[in-house]
Design goal:
Order of helices and strands: EEHEEEHEEHHHH
Helix content: 40-55%
Number of strands: 7
Distance between the termini: 34 Å
Low-confidence stretches: none
Largest sheet: 3 strands, antiparallel
Radius of gyration: 22 Å
Strand content: 5-15%
Shape: globular
Strand order of the largest sheet: 1-2-5
């Protein structure tokens, strides 16, 4: 947090009970992080995590934070539409990272399966080891295609909410499946920090819940794409 120059504060400027529709009443502010930290109106407390420490996470606290009017993104009370310009590329970015993660897990797992010799042959020669890797590769390739489609639509300024959601969903599942398979192939030593697969396992899990959980994506596809009634 302390390394950032700016942050976007998503605020509710109309009480939820009074907002019609429910997406109304949000305002996005651009906050000068260093200025706010210096005057004490913003505090950040790092969150210790089990993985994904390349990107820092913080709990943030606001205390009488004042933002100039010219730092409103979009219009007051109508920030939700602007927010989608942040959320869709965030999901595409998450999907891209997950596809790369899947490919790395496949490489780590397959390298080990080629090198580890048991009963006179590499364990990767056994179909019980090889076929799950092949399935994970197929999933990763499909996830890559959907990620490319979502990015292509976003770059063209076309609606891409569904594609971004699907890309994030399937890419993170592909990353988890590939990592879990690499972990299983390494056997008990996968739990050891001696092997890189231990870190891959920790980093892959968070993608299934952040920046948006699988359940929320499925709810959006069900209601917004398939037209099913809401459960909430």
């Amino acid at each position: 947090m302390q390394r950032a120059d700016w942050m976007i504060a998503v605020t509710r400027t109309i009480p939820a009970g009074e907002a019609k529709p429910r997406t109304a009443g949000f305002t996005l502010f651009l906050v000068d992080v260093k200025e706010a930290l210096a005057n004490g109106s913003l505090q950040a407390q790092p969150i210790e995590k089990m993985g994904s420490n390349l990107v820092h996470s913080n709990q943030v606290y606001f205390d009488d934070l004042r933002v100039p009017a010219d730092r409103v993104l979009g219009e007051v009370d109508h920030g939700f539409s602007v927010l989608w310009d942040v959320l869709n590329p965030e999901r595409i970015l998450a999907a891209s990272g997950a596809v790369g993660h899947a490919e790395l897990a496949l490489r780590v797992g397959c390298d080990y399966a080629r090198e580890r010799v048991v009963f006179g042959k590499p364990i990767g020669a056994n179909q019980a080891v090889a076929f799950p890797f092949a399935q994970a590769k197929a999933h990763a390739d499909l996830a890559r295609l959907m990620t490319h489609k979502a990015a292509w639509l976003f770059d063209r300024g076309e609606p891409c909410g569904h594609e971004a959601n699907v890309a994030k969903l399937v890419a993170c599942q592909a990353a988890w499946d590939a990592t879990d398979r690499a972990f299983q192939t390494h056997g008990g030593m996968a739990y050891s920090k001696e092997y890189h697969v231990e870190r891959l396992f920790r980093d892959a899990r968070i993608a299934k819940v952040a920046p948006i959980s699988e359940e929320l994506i499925l709810a959006h596809i069900a209601t917004q794409t398939l037209g099913l009634p809401r459960s909430y």
